[in-house]
Amino acid sequence: MTARTSAGISGEHEMPSVLDRELSVLSEDAFGHQYFSKALRSLVEGRHRPPFSIGLLGSWGTGKSTIKQLYLESLASDSSGPTGKRRRDRFRPITFNAWKYGGDDDIKRALLRHVFIQLGGDEVELRRSLYQQVAESAQVRRNLGEWFKEAILQNAASAFLFVLLLASTVGIFWFASYSLGLSNQLGISAVLSVAAIVGAFLARNVVDLRLKSPTLFNSQSVVTFPATSAEEYERLLVNQIETFRKARDGRSCERLVVFVDDLDRLSAAEMVSGLDAVRTFLELPITDASENFGVVFVISCDEDRVADALSRGRGRVNPELPGSVFTRSDARRYLDRLFQFRLEIPPFPKLDMRQFTEKKLRAAGSMVAELEKQGVRLQDLVDRLIHVGVQSPRNAIQILNAFTQTWWIATQRERSGVGSSAPGVLHKGAVTNHPLALAALCVLRVDFPDFYNELLKRPELIQEFSRVVFRREPPESLAIGAQYALKEFLATADGKIGNDVRTEHRQLRQYLSSLLDLRWPRSLQPLLLLAQDTISRKFGDRAAELNDAFVSGDIQGVLEIFGHHLDNDHLGRDDVRLLEELAEGLSDDTAARRVNAARVLAALAHRIPPEYRNGLMVPLARQMVDLKDIRTNVGPRAAKGIIGSLAAADRREVAAHFCGDLLTGQKLEWRLPTGETPNLEELVSDAKAAVELVLNVRASDGLLPPTESRLKGWLLTREVQASTGAQTLPFSQLENWMDEHEVHLLSFLGSDYAHLAILELANEPASIPNKDRMLRRLSEVYQSLAQGGQESRQVLWQLLTTQVAVRDPAGASSAWGEAGIHAALASDEEARAFLVALAARLQKDMEDGDDWALDWEAGANKFLDLVTRWESHIDPSTATGILPIITSWAKVDDTSAYMVRAAEILIRTDAAAWNGLLKHITSKSFSDLPWTSLEYVASKLGELTEEHKSALATQMNAIINADPVDVEAAEKYARFIATASSSEWSAAPLQGHVKATRVRTLAMSTRPDYLSAIYPAARILLEYAPKAQAGAFLKQLFEQAVGAPDAYPILHREMVGHWPKENDHTGAYEPGGIASRAIQFIRENPAVSGSGDVLKSIVDMEARGLLPESSRGDISGAAAILWRHSPSSVVTCIKDIGTFMMPADVKTLLTGKQPANQNTDDLQTIVDVLAEGADEQRLLSISREVLSVPAKQIGDHPDGALTLWLSSLLGKEKRTLKTLMEDEGLNEEQRERLLNFLLTERERVGLDFFIEIVPLVLARTSEAKPLTLMVNGIDNVLSLARTSDQRSSLVSALIPTLPDHSRETLIMVARSISRLGGKGLLERNTDVLDKMDAEQVKVLSNEFKESKVLAGYARDRGNEAAE
Fold first, then answer.
1. Which of 583-597, 985-999, 1152-1166 has the lowest mean pLDDT?
2. What beta strand segments (E) does 632-749 contain?
């Protein structure tokens, strides 16, 4: 066997390789295979008479195919001798590749088919013979005796059948004719006729009377079955050989040489079947003894493999074959009988294969030069490649290709890796600096693939193998992963590996022994994977140094390799990734190395960026579960970040251990990373960190039940004990943890948390970090308790009752808010206890608002809501408990309304408590009580006891008898009187107060201060005076007060709307006299501030019908007088007096002296009332009165009074305005004022009104001022005519006035007609034109120059004037 190097192998960019293929050129024979080829020729073409077989025996890769190919090439190229006698004519080679047909149902058929076809056989015919069942038809001739016998029988049978059928038919018809009585002659004729017809039918359709002649030949089917027996195989092959020898190409053939290749690559069964086929064909009777022809089989195989296959397959696979083969010795004896000649290829010398390998390496481009440049001898490299176990050139070529290809790829990747971060590249020298190590790995990859596969998984496996096998170290000293990997190669005893290799791996031990002196690189990963990530490229061999420092616990060494030993910065991403790779292998390493590595990771944990920390800390976290020393070194803070990547069960375990270490509430056994005892502050810090770690785990994974219990107990006490003392963490610390873990922690602590929070609210509310958040949590706890059973709700109300009593206002308000939410769940006792507690808390706010302040409004409302809801639960004890706060509310104006609500409930639930409340209120002076409390007493006056009423009367008597009067008390007193029930004032003890009030008022009738305060109540109490006493009291009172200008109006003010009618109960008090004196008072004292009240009083008397109609004039005059002094009172009274107010008084009011702070709106109100409902005559009278006074400025109006009055008429009675314009009693100035108003208010007046009055004004040519005003304002009137109809109407109104105008007026009117487009109407109105003189017509013609009609009129009038 030899090999070829690929073309262009020395090219700079082409990978070197050696092609493993048989050779046919002697010059390329590197191992002397040509001599074996010549030996084969001697055997095949020698003097031995065939048939026989030759075994070309040798291991795989020793060159069997090359020897065959060299022989065939020499046979094909030998052209010596005449045609037909040359070697290639005498020897016919056929090559059968058994491996190609492996897997067929029968290798015999494959061999037969191949030889058959190679000898020129028809493949279709062969397939029919071997695989198909063939059916064919054939003709067989009969003898004459059989033929004559069959002919006679066929014709006789037809004649007999015909006669029988015909006779039967004739007989039937004869019998029928006879039965019918037909004559003999007629019956015979009928029968004969029918017989003829029936005979013809039978001969045609039923019986074949033609002469029959049977066939002389019979058809037969011949079926040929597939050839399956050995005899049939022999027949097919012998027949084809005979056919071949008869052909031109086969006549000179002496020997048929069949090469069977790759037999040893078949399965055991196929290999046995192939050998049996060879044996069978060697025994074929191909020629006679006189013929010089035969078959020679050349079988290329590895005898050892074939013998092994025979020993395993013979007798079991095909027991029908002769001989019994059950062992390898039997197999070799069988092969000796099969192979008449054995041509064995011995192993090649190692030197030859090394020279061959060296030669190929030197042809592989610049590789040798690169190696020599590094000081590596090529011979040393070849010695590593061609080890003692290499037995064949093929093996050598495989190893050589593995090395050259790996080297080439590594070289390319190293070149690409310079300054690159691309994947799949290497740093400079990562592989090429270690050629001998690479060669050893290539040998392992080719010759020991199982070990190499394990080496890929565990690069340190070679060193571990050496430690156990060569250094005899105990296997238990290796990591678990190493023990598992070596288990396939080392002998085991009792399931444990030993120091000896398995028998089948002795060659591996031999080879690895030869590598003991080899200097391996620190890391085999680049040589195994031919790639490095960016981190490995960055650190190179230092990665191995880092691993040594890592597993030895050398923290400083690790930092030095990373270049961070002089700073405290975070490690880089590449640094972390390298540590991750190292940490991945810790799980199956020794305990000591794991602890050392854990120590390094613990020390570096704070220098690992948070985003990379979880993945790296996994190995360390797993160690913490088992070793407290590691937990001590790491500490709970670092552990919190480390355990993030662990499984949930592992995280729970870590949390459980830290909880057991630090959260016991007892004296702690804990150490610092230095191994020394921490002080209390350090211990507290670690305990806090442990809590955070445990809470994080609980949030994500939950905790084990014992851990849950321990954690809860510690959180409630929060005590840390050390040898030097103890410390309890404040509630604020619990709140901080609650802020972060509320989702799970709140439900975990539940009511215990609420109890702690309430205690903190009661004692140190200022220390709570976020009170609102804490109160919200309490609300959630309460909600959870409310959803539970009775036991939980009992706890709920205990907590709420405690909380509502705390000093902190937010805490108390939160409690009563929660109570309102869950009020339906409270039992009777729970409701009563809470109400009393809430009332007591509210009472503290009333008594000490500085220290116990709270939102009393919200609290009071909630208290009352709860009292209302739980009204049925209130018993005397509860009522007594809440009475103090209700009593306190009654004293304060802001809270008195709450007292009212509470009192209403008390009156229904506990009368005694209610009476106590009213006793307290009635005993207080009115000045000390808010009105709401007094109002409540007034509303309940009928339900008061005699004691209550007496106390009340005493307080009221004090008010009316005080001098000076307490104004505030008097006001409340008046309101009280107005609110109280009327029935109670007529009976004792209140009737005495009523009498006292009248007496005291008469005594103080001239005191305005007293009357202002007391008379409002006294006036109400008059209704409850004895019969006829009220009238006498009023008469006397007003007679006495009239002389006191300051006091008199007060009485009238209070009487407005309350003047009684004279009857038996009231008595006589002479309203007319009081009114006369009041009017006289107004006339004499119009400027007194209360005079307007006097007017209102007498107007009220008039409206009630208490005064005669004759008094109306006086009232009207009084109002006119009072206008300038009290305009508001006049405005108030105008609705009542407007209908009878005299026109002269109206003129006085509108045109007289006006108030200092004049308000035009008041005047407008007055005139609107006066105009409303008045008849036209009254309106005209008032208008004439207003016009009779010259114009006077009022507000923005120059002619104010007229403008206000006419404006009112304009909105109601335009007809009156037209009447005024036509009124002959008006003078020129008055009419001008009237027209001026109309033009000013033209939009409100409207065009229709002007169409009526414009002709009237224009017709009054004697009144120059209105006429001039109208002519000058005509444009304003024209602007109102916006539609064609309106313009036409206005023109029609203007045209009739034309004859009456002077030249100047005529010009203005004519222009107006022109602007309105009235030319046509003017031209058609001949009546008007006829009335006009020549001068007037001329003016019109000049204004309407385009009018021919007017021009004609002008000429006519001119001619008439000339005549």
1. 583-597
2. 719-722, 725-728
> Where on the phi/psi map is residue 404: left (φ > 0), alpha (ψ -120 to 50), or beta?
alpha
Contacts of 1156 (CB under 8 A, 6+ apart): none
User: Based on the number of CB atoms within 10 Å of its own CB, is 123 exposed (0-12), middle (13-18) or buried (19 or more)?
Assistant: exposed
Cis amide bond preceding 226, omega within 30: no
**Greatest alpha-carbon span in the chain:** 189
Structure tokens at 1113: 């004039």
Asked if 348 and 392 count as a contact pair (C-beta separation under 8 A), the reply is yes
8 A C-beta contact, residue 1038 and residue 1070 = no
Fold of 32-133+230-344: Rossmann fold (3.40.50)
- pLDDT tens readout for residues 46-95: 888 888 888 888 877 777 888 888 888 888 888 777 766 788 778 889 88
Q: Could you say which DSSP state residue 727 is in? A: E
Whole-angstrom CA distances from 189 to 97, 112, 195, 196, 226 are: 97, 86, 10, 11, 74
Return d(Cα 139, Cα 124) in angstroms, integer.
26
1355 Cβ neighbours under 8 A, 6+ residues apart: none
- Residues near 181 by Cβ (< 8 Å), separated by ≥ 6? none
Whether 964 contacts 958, CB under 8 Å = no
Count the neighbouring beta carbons within 10 Å of the beta carbon of residue 167: 11
Alpha helical stretches, state H, 180-314: 184-201, 230-246, 268-282, 303-313
Main-chain phi, psi angles of 326, to 5 degrees: -130, -15
Angle (CA) 1119-1124-1127 rounded to 5° is 65
- Could you tell me if 403 and 385 are in contact, meaning their C-beta atoms sit under 8 angstroms apart? yes
Give the closest residue to 804 by CA, choosing from 766, 827, 778: 778
For the chain, the structural domain boundaries read 32-133+230-344, 139-218, 350-544, 749-849, 1040-1121, 1142-1245, 1249-1363
Question: Could you tell me which residues come within 8 angstroms of residue 351 by beta carbon, excluding any fewer than 6 positions away?
Answer: none
> Interior CA angle at 68 toward 67 and 72, to 5°?
120
1014 and 1000 in contact (C-beta within 8 Å)? yes
Q: Tally Cβ neighbours within 10 Å of residue 1257.
A: 22
Spatial contact of 835 and 867, defined as CB atoms under 8 Å apart: yes
348, 29 contact by CB (below 8 A): no
Beta strand ranges found along 633-675 (DSSP E): none
User: 218 - beta bridge partners?
Assistant: 140
How would you classify the pairing of strands 341-344 and 134-141? unpaired
- DSSP secondary structure code for residue 1348 in this structure: H
Write down the pTM of the prediction. 0.49
| pLDDT tens column, 1218-1273 | 888 888 888 989 888 999 988 988 888 888 888 888 888 888 888 888 888 888 88
DSSP 1100-1135: HHHHTT-S-TTHHHHHHHHHHHHTTT-HHHHHHHHH
- Residue 1192 tokens read as 């006077």
Enumerate long-range contacts of 496-503, CB under 8 Å, 24 or more apart. Answer: 497/468, 499/468, 499/469, 499/472, 499/475, 500/469, 501/469
The C-alpha angle 570, 574, 575, rounded to 5 degrees, equals 55
Burial of 85 (0-12, 13-18, 19+ CB in 10 A): exposed
Confidence band of 973 (pLDDT split at 50, 70, 90): very high
| Contact present, 898 and 853 (Cβ < 8 Å) | no
DSSP 924-949: S-GGGS-HHHHHHHHHTGGG--HHHH
As a whole number of angstroms, the distance between CA 1300 and CA 1313 comes to 15
Nearest to 1311 by CA among 1272, 1285, 1283: 1272
Q: What does the DSSP assignment read for 759-824?
A: HHHHH-GGG-S-HHHHHHHHHHHHHHHHTS-HHHHHHHHHHHHHHTTSS-HHHHHHHHHHHHHTGG
In this prediction, residues 991-1018 reach a mean pLDDT of 92
